[in-house]
Each structure stands twice: as C-alpha cells, then as structure tokens.
Amino acid sequence: MAHPTQLGFQDAASPVMEELLHFHDHAMMIVLLISILVLYIIVAMISTKLTDKYILDSQEIEIIWTVLPAVTLIMIALPSLRILYLMDEVNNPHLTVKAIGHQWYWSYEYTDYMDLGFDSYMVPTQDLTLGQYRLLEADHRMVVPSDSPVRVLVTAEDVLHSWAVPALGVKMDAVPGRLNQTAFISSRPGLFYGQCSEICGANHSFMPIVVESVPLEHFEDWSTLLLQDS
C-alpha cells in the first residue's frame, strides 16, 4: 500500500512486479551514470581554457560516442524485452476470473465455478470503518488463492476502463467487445489495492479494485460459502 511522501514503488507482491522493480533500478543506475558523465563534461568544458586539436577532430572519439550509446540501449532493451515476454505468459492457470468494467463499478465472474460472481462497488466515505481507505475500499473483494497462477479476463460493458493493481504488476485495458487477458501469482497473502486507470467518465476515480489473497484452504471455504448463499 502506498503512503504519503512515498517516492518509490509499492512493495512487490508478485514475481513479475519484483522483476519490474529490478529493471527500474537497473535503468535508473544507467541514467544516473549518464547524467554524471554529461555533467562532468559540461563543467570541464566551461571551466578549462585548454583545448586539444586531437579531441576537436578525432575519428576515434566519434566512434566511441557512437558505439557507447548503442551498447547502453542494448543493456536497457534486452532486460525490458525479457520482462515483456514474462508478462504475456499465461501458463496453466489454477483459477480464471473475468473482470467486467461498468460505469462505475466492477463485476467479477469466477468461470471455473457455476454461478459464482458478484458486483464490486466503492464503499462510500460515510460507511468506512476504522482502518479502511477512502476511495480504495470495495464492498466485495476479488478473492484469489496465494501462490497460485491466476488468469484475469478483462472486458468492459460500456466504455474503456483499465484493470490495474500496482503491487501485483498488473494493468490491462478493458475494451467493450474485446476480451483481454493477463495473469499474476500473488506471492503472499494480503490486500492489494488498485483503481481504474483509464478515464471513463464522471465517476472514473470512484471504481476501486481490491484483490484479497488468501491461502488455498481459505479460498475454498470462501467459494463454498458464497455458492451456498447464492
């Protein structure tokens, strides 16, 4: 969960998000080194009055400042492509959940079960209990088993939405008439908050996403209880 004055990302709750955090640190270190080098060159050129004719006209230095940026780009591109392919992998999911965006709430359907689905609305501010987050709490949470591959099918009924949970490293557009899919593995039990990340109308900021990751036996008890109530 993000907190005020936080400068970095939320703590990773899935293997893909851990990879994204590592890639961010890797890219930022390269940017920092480039910035220091450029700053040093600028300061050196301004502060010194000495010139060197071999630097002013040199084939070798032109080769260096052409090859070095290319190598730097490769060092950034290869890990990036690796993570992109990892994010697209959906291998033998243990559970499939269909998330449907509406104006302005989410519906969830557990397609592996018969008649297991519900709508998820934001809890109004006046109904919040102690410890709940304003604009982020939902009356029905999407419950998933921890340490299990979960596939999420994302679509919309009316306008464009986006199903995003930063701690899980998941963000997928919900497009009417189109079924997109993404997957994640929750590496620990907990509550993970997200919001619609595509401007979808007047109440765009009032359709939160709450994913509750629980141990497998608790998930089975929850699904059985929900089926009995329905």
Task: Give the topology.
Blueprint: H1 15-47, H2 53-56, H3 59-88, E1 95-102, E2 105-110, E3 117-120, E4 142-145, E5 149-156, E6 161-165, E7 170-174, E8 180-185, E9 190-196, E10 208-214, H4 216-229
Parallel strand pairs: 1-5, 4-10
Antiparallel strand pairs: 1-2, 2-3, 5-8, 6-7, 6-9, 9-10
Helix pairs in contact: 1-3
Descriptive terms for the model:
five-stranded mixed sheet; elongated; 4 helices; 35% helix; 230 residues; 2 domains; alpha+beta; Immunoglobulin-like; 10 strands
Description:
By secondary structure, the chain is α+β, with helices and mostly antiparallel strands. It is built from four helices and ten strands. It has two domains: about 15-85, Helix Hairpins (Orthogonal Bundle); about 95-225, Immunoglobulin-like (Sandwich), CATH 2.60.40. A hairpin with a 6-residue loop joins strand 2 and strand 3 (about 115-120). Helix 1 runs antiparallel to helix 3. The model has no long low-confidence stretch (mean pLDDT about 90). It catalyses: 4 Fe(II)-[cytochrome c] + O2 + 8 H(+)(in) = 4 Fe(III)-[cytochrome c] + 2 H2O + 4 H(+)(out). Its cofactor is Cu cation.
At a glance:
With 230 residues, the protein is an alpha+beta fold. It is built from 4 helices and 10 strands; from the N terminus they run αααββββββββββα. The radius of gyration is 24 Å and the shape is elongated.
